[in-house]
Design a protein that fits this description.
alpha/beta, Peroxisomal Thiolase, Chain A, domain 1, 389 residues, 2 domains
């Protein structure tokens, strides 16, 4: 297979933009990514578009990319609409990587976009209801307490994990404090005000033990990535960032090994490296406990040592492995279909040395992990992408 290079990235700020539509978000992200790569829309071989909730929130089904990108100059290109819950644009990236690596296309553009904010909040929260098997019986209390089915699911997982490893709510608060500090240095982040452990713990309880600050929020945004072959990249101005591995795993009811573990192992094997080689990572922290759980899932620490790792400061900006220097889903924001692409944008900036105050010094190898949906007690899908210079 051919080596695949990320040569251009761009994104919009994330936030609640009631007056903006998906088209305007996509146009801004695409324009930035193409300009960053030094190419035009004419240079794009195919488009892979990730969006999770457009049908529920704004009624746009079936032709989401063709509608969202009609004014970008990309009309007429092969377009593929990818819906895979929170992992939609990570899945789109995987497909684009396969297309370029196989030689089917020399270039491809990945776009992840989501418009979740709505005047009626019930519409926004309703978008999450379809990301589970609707015929599966949910555990007692899920969806009835917080009003958010996923926060109830995350809370139940957090309680089980706390009992197993001895972590406490203050460790979750430490994740948020780290996240907000990173986001304060990220002009694209939704929540840029720093906070304290006490403020996190004293914010409104959503679903025990998750307080409001421990939960990712509703948001809007778009991100875009220009991929190309290594030979094509030699003609472009940017330092190449290589996709070393891309793995995707779906839930397997009855398998005790969670999807994130299996996806991580497959990516490490593909890249020929181990977790000790990762210097900067963007993880799917839809709730604060998820970041800690993923420390263990991805081998950043031994099982039971995640609380020790967050307390050590080794996952801070400039630490041994800087985790979520963008602010992550908790603070950069979590517009579902844009999240995976935004992770890759941040890691590309990190590997180029363009992340400003939040730069992890000397970053050469990076990892993104993104989950989506819920099935049989596990995420329905997980993707792990490894990048390097």
């Amino acid at each position: 297979m051919n080596k695949v290079v990320i040569s251009g990235v761009g994104m919009t700020p994330f936030g609640k933009f009631l007056q903006r539509n998906v088209k305007s978000l996509c146009e801004a992200a695409v324009r930035s990514a193409l300009a960053d790569a030094g190419v035009t829309a004419d240079d794009v071989g195919a488009v892979y578009f990730g969006n999770a909730a457009g049908g529920t929130v704004n009624g746009q089904e079936m032709i989401r990319s063709q509608a969202a990108l009609r004014n970008t100059g990309l009309a007429g290109k092969p377009m593929f609409n990818v819906e895979n819950a929170c992992a939609s644009s990570s899945s789109a990236l995987h497909l684009a990587w396969v297309a370029v690596a196989s030689g089917r296309h020399e270039t491809a553009l990945v776009v992840g976009a989501e418009k979740l904010s709505h005047e009626d909040k019930a519409v926004s929260f309703g978008a999450f209801a379809g990301a589970v098997d609707v015929e599966e019986q949910m555990p007692e209390g899920v969806g009835s307490g917080s009003g958010s089915i996923f926060m109830d699911i995350y809370a139940a997982k957090a309680r089980k994990w706390m009992n197993a490893c001895g972590a406490d709510a203050s460790d979750f608060a430490r994740v948020v404090v780290k996240s907000r500090k990173a986001a304060s240095m990220n002009p694209y982040a939704q929540f840029r005000k720093e906070t304290t452990i006490d403020e996190v713990l004293n914010s409104r309880m959503v679903s025990d033990p998750l307080t409001l600050f421990m939960c990712s929020s509703i948001g809007d945004g778009a991100a875009a990535i220009f991929l190309c072959s290594e030979a094509y990249a030699r003609k472009l101005p940017n330092q190449p960032v290589f996709i070393r591995a891309s793995s995707i795993v779906s839930a397997q009811p009855g398998n005790p090994e969670v999807v994130a573990v299996r996806a991580g192992r497959a990516a490490y094997e593909q890249a020929g490296i181990g977790p000790e080689d990762i210097q900067v990572a963007e993880l799917h922290d839809a709730s604060a406990p998820a970041e800690l759980i993923h420390y263990e899932n991805l081998g950043f620490c031994a099982a039971g040592d995640a609380a020790k790792l967050i307390r050590s400061g080794d996952t801070d900006i400039g630490g041994r492995i800087s985790v979520n220097p963008s602010g992550g889903l908790l603070s950069r924001g979590h517009p579902l279909g844009a999240t995976g692409a935004a992770q890759i944008v941040e890691l590309t900036w990190q590997l180029r040395g363009q992340a400003g105050e939040r730069q992890r010094p000397g970053a050469r190898v990076a990892l993104a992990e993104n989950n989506g949906g819920q099935l049989a007690g596990d995420s329905a899908v997980a993707l792990v992408t490894i990048l390097s210079t």
